[in-house]
Specification:
FAD/NAD(P)-binding domain, Enolase-like, domain 1, single chain, 11 helices, 5-stranded parallel beta sheet, 26 strands, alpha/beta
């Protein structure tokens, strides 16, 4: 009996494995990871871990002995290299092969590379894995000038850590505002002011043209307008690429991600997928790819159920978060297509929310330092309740009353 094989030992893969066990599957479960580590949490890597507030042991999601107790066979350091759907076997990097009755693809994603010469020089880093975080943490202690390429979540979180360590920090963002893909201009401006107030230099519309170095080591970053920014540590945070190559080579449908339905099923009914690598087909036929803890958890549970022949569709509103300095941003829903934004609260207090609307319907909420507001928003979304823009903007109006 081959059992269930899971490729990818991140949160999604671990969730598939544990859900299979908790829902009564008694056969063999094998969890394959290409990194040398047991499953660990990624979100703290750019926050508490770099600050030295979160120890490496605290990142581990499950101690190895617990996986042994659950009879989950964890194999690390040898990722999958090929899938043979005709024989239901997977080839691994160490030359071995494993058979499967059901297969879950949870290979995650990788960093988008900076397409410039010198991107592999000493002092130039990306942040996706524990090993990368450890290298950055060590380099940060000795660094003086830190340049962040990309004003998204990861870049800004690392910028806030570097400033708290009293490093000189420059953030170079190609767009005309920070986090432009996911937040409204008022939130972008709030974060521009926040980072500037804490001593970081933020340069918008900055098109990086060249990495300057000597002896294989970074010394500066140059932009198209001729400006040069000294750097002995550069973090590149320009997005990620879903790992779809295995699925594509095996003939599965891929379109911006491994295409799955609401239950995590791929185009082959014996194969499911979950996490960053997936593009979920929605009811209207469009595809959506999410990069979040919640998506990895919920898709992992759905995918495990599908392997057991059960339907457990994942339809919950997506949520995300980011910690920068003393501000926690909690995001609910997706802002794409919004045509109106109303502010609830006073941005100068660093405690307020932005409510996003499309044709009068609430589609997303960004809450800053307001966990109760975020949780209340989740309940509104779960019940399909949309307060009017006037109600959302009026802090005297109890939005919780709409839940009665």
């Amino acid at each position: 009996m081959s059992g269930m094989l899971i490729i990818g030992a991140g949160l999604a893969g671990l969730t598939v494995a544990e859900t299979l066990r908790s829902e009564g599957y008694a056969g063999p479960i094998t969890l394959i990871g290409d990194e040398a580590h047991a499953p660990y949490q990624r979100p703290p890597l750019s926050k508490g871990f770099l600050l030295g507030q979160t120890a490496e042991a605290q990142l581990m999601m499950r101690p190895p002995e617990l996986l042994v107790k659950k009879d989950i066979d964890l194999r690390v350091g040898a990722g999958a290299t090929a899938i043979d759907r005709s024989t239901k076997r997977v080839a691994l990097g160490d030359g071995s092969t494993l058979g499967y009755d059901g297969l879950a693809l949870c290979p995650g994603s990788r960093l988008r590379p900076l397409p410039l010469a010198g991107a592999d020089w000493h002092g130039v880093y990306g942040l996706r894995t524990l090993d990368e975080a450890k290298a950055i943490a060590a380099a940060l202690e000795a660094a003086h000038n830190v340049v962040i390429i990309g004003g998204g979540f990861i870049g800004l979180e690392v910028a806030s850590v570097a400033r708290r360590k009293e490093k000189r920090v420059t953030v170079l963002e190609a767009a005309d505002r920070l986090m432009a893909r996911v937040v409204a201009p008022l939130i972008s401006q709030f974060y521009l002011d926040l980072h500037t107030r804490h001593g970081a230099e933020v340069v918008l519309g900055a098109m990086v043209s060249e990495l300057v170095g000597s002896g294989g080591r970074i010394t500066a970053v140059r932009t198209r307008d001729g400006r040069e920014f000294p750097a002995d540590l550069v973090l590149v945070g320009i997005g990620i690429i879903p790992n779809v190559e295995l699925a594509q080579a095996a003939g599965l449908e891929v379109n911006g991600g491994i295409v799955v339905d609401a239950c995590g099923r791929c185009s082959d009914p014996t194969i499911v997928a979950a996490g960053d690598c997936t593009a979920r087909r929605l009811d209207d036929g469009s595809l959506r790819r999410l990069e979040s803890v919640q998506n990895a958890l919920e898709q992992g549970r759905s995918a495990a159920a599908a392997l057991l022949g059960r339907d457990r569709p994942f339809h919950a509103a997506p949520w995300f978060w980011s910690d920068q300095y003393d501000v926690k941003l909690q995001m609910l829903g997706l802002t794409a297509g919004f045509d109106q934004v109303v502010t609830r609260g006073d941005p100068t207090t660093q405690k307020f929310s932005a409510y996003y609307y499309q044709a009068g319907k609430l589609i997303a909420i960004d809450s800053l330092n307001q966990p109760p507001e975020h949780m209340n928003g989740r309940k509104l979304f779960e019940k399909g309740i949309s307060p009017t823009p006037a109600q959302a903007a009026d802090t005297a109006f109890d939005l919780g009353s709409l839940l009665a």
